[in-house]
Amino acid sequence: MSPKALLGGKRGLPAHVTVYLFVIVPFLALVAAVPIAWGWGLSWVDVGLAAGWYVFTCLGATVGFHRYFTHGAFKAGRPMRVALAVAGSMAVQGPILHWVADHRRHHAFSDQEGDPHSPWLFGTSAAALARGFWHAHLGWILDRDLTNQERFAPDLLADRDIRLVHRTFGLWTAVTLLAPAVMGGLITWSWWGAVTAFFWASLVRVTLLHHVTWSVNSVCHMVGERPFAARDRSANFWPLAILSMGESWHNLHHADPTCARHGVRPWEVDISARVIWLFEKLGWVRDVRWPSRPRLARIRRAATPA
Q: 247: buried, middle or exposed (CB in 10 Å: 19+, 13-18, 0-12)?
């Protein structure tokens, strides 16, 4: 199939400008965070709200957008399905149909021509890898081309609930940015509490989550350990395991994409998998694709560092 068949048009100019704003503005907030935190402008309320909203929205992306909607690692009823779609939308990583189509395309062409964010598309020289890292981490997001949803996400396109969540992405973005400020203002009963909560629990939290997620695309395809046989350069990068909620155990994920647990060895902390386990115990999800010893044995190979 020709490369054009992978694409489904271009992002409209207003939406593209919005993408730039949501990349640049939160990043500037992160840059400003260190001097602002040095002696003033940061309270325990801000820390608590930022941590809580980070965990909630990160899990929305990892458990919801990624392991459930993209890969079908478990099944869920309609209320949980809608809740996961909304929670993932509040990570501000793009509407659900775009996110899922992009990621399924990534797996279909991982580290080959057609992959939307491989760091290996430009060669292996130092300059090529620097260019590839930028492309995989952030550059691809600034491209106006959109992945063909009819090819890569026809099941979600056919779901009325998911189409509604996709169309209301702006609403969920407003909620994820304004709710922490409202909470900070009410907890401290002050306008200043609302302002600092907006800075830390909205802007800084969003950009930190952005860069952790983007690092799985870039860093985890360049450096790390590869104990499982995958057809690409996906690797485990343990320093990101906690912040990514287990997504940086990336090698197993590419070796067995539908597996609900990515960190399968005893020391590999996978918070997303534990949340799915809890949901299963509560009866909120079912038919979870947990790893099996025979399957792991088939895809295991001698560990090879990058």
A: buried
In this structure, is residue 117 part of a structural domain?
yes
* pLDDT tens string 247-267: 999 999 999 999 999 999 999
pLDDT at 128 over 80: yes
pLDDT at 63: 98
**Residue 289 is encoded by which pair of tokens?**
């694709």
Distances (CA, A) of 293 to 185, 257, 259, 280, 298: 50, 16, 12, 20, 9
Domain annotation covers residue 295: no
Distance CA 176, CA 184 (A): 13
Rounded Cα gap, residues 74 and 42, in angstroms: 39
Supply the pLDDT for residue 303: 42
Helix and strand element counts for the chain (H, E) = 14, 4
**Helix or strand or coil: residue 147?**
strand
The pLDDT confidence band at residue 28, using thresholds 50, 70 and 90, is: confident
Exposure class string for 176-202: b at 16+ Cβ within 10 A, else e: bbebbbebbbebbeeeebbebbbbbbb
Query: What does the pLDDT look like over 207-231, one tens digit per residue?
Result: 999 999 999 999 999 999 999 999 9
CA atoms within 13 Å, Cβ hemisphere of 254: 28
Question: Per the structure, how many domains does the chain have?
Answer: 1
In a domain, 102, yes or no: yes
86 is a domain residue: yes
Q: Which two tokens stand for residue 272?
A: 């997303």
Domain with 89, as residue range(s), is 3-223
**DSSP 8-class letter at 260:** S
